[in-house]
Design a protein that fits this description.
Number of helices: 5
InterPro entries: eEF-1beta-like_sf (IPR036219), EF-1_beta_acid_region_euk (IPR018940), EF1B_bsu/dsu (IPR049720), EF1B_bsu/dsu_GNE (IPR014038), Transl_elong_EF1B/ribsomal_bS6 (IPR014717), Transl_elong_EF1B_B/D_CS (IPR001326)
Strand order of the largest sheet: 2-3-1-4
Helix content: 25-40%
Pfam families: EF-1_beta_acid, EF1_GNE
Family: Belongs to the EF-1-beta/EF-1-delta family.
Order of helices and strands: HHHEHEEHE
Keywords: Elongation factor, Protein biosynthesis
CATH superfamily of the domain at 98-183: Ribosomal protein S6/Translation elongation factor EF1B
Number of strands: 4
CATH architecture of the domain at 98-183: 2-Layer Sandwich
Distance between the termini: 79 Å
Largest sheet: 4 strands, antiparallel
Structural class: alpha+beta
GO molecular function: guanyl-nucleotide exchange factor activity; translation elongation factor activity
Shape: elongated
């Protein structure tokens, strides 16, 4: 058994060296294998390698059973389902992304007319902008800031645009800060 294995290894080494010489990608020399006698008897292999003819037969077997007729039927079914999905999606209402913003509008001093300031801010009318409730919050030294809520559609009104529009009232508004921002 050991002699058979040694002969098989020798034949494989000879075959490998022939393959390495013929292949341009494997120009490097492979290290030689040492012949070592085993300490115990090796069991003979249970079965020899399958001949190449069996491998070719495996390739010819279609494991998934695809036929031309079934492919046409599957394509027709897929097209019908895609059409139904498109119809269903067209009927669905479009969801508009909205955000709720709480703005802090700060006046220049304690003599600023806060009612006039709020009227100026609410006079800003943009497509996708809805003004909500407001309140005056004390800051210190008799100065109060206007805290006003608004809801904006994200694709129509940006926070930068809103801040620019409010700060255009320079005689009343010192600065504008976003106190809270949340998606609806």
């Amino acid at each position: 058994v050991v002699q058979d294995l040694q002969q098989a290894v020798s034949r494989l080494e000879a075959r490998l060296s022939v393959l390495e010489k013929s292949s341009p990608a494997h120009r490097a020399t492979a290290p030689q294998t040492q012949h070592v006698s085993p300490m115990r008897q090796a069991e003979p292999p249970a079965r020899k390698a399958a001949p190449a003819a069996e491998d070719d037969e495996d390739d010819a077997i279609d494991l998934f059973g695809s036929d031309e007729e079934e492919d046409k039927e599957a394509a027709r079914l897929r097209e019908e389902r895609l059409r139904q999905y498109a119809e269903k999606k067209a009927k669905k209402p479009v969801l508009v992304a909205k955000s709720s913003i709480l703005l802090d509008v700060k006046p220049w001093d304690d003599e600023t007319d806060m009612a006039k300031l709020e009227a100026c801010v609410r006079s800003i009318q943009l497509d996708g902008l809805t003004w909500g409730g407001s309140k005056l919050v004390p800051v210190g030294y008799g100065i109060r800031k206007l805290q006003i809520q608004c809801v904006v559609e994200d694709d129509k009104v940006g926070t930068d645009l809103l801040e620019e529009e409010i700060t255009k009232f320079e005689e009343h508004v010192q600065s504008v800060d976003i106190a809270a921002f949340s998606k609806i």
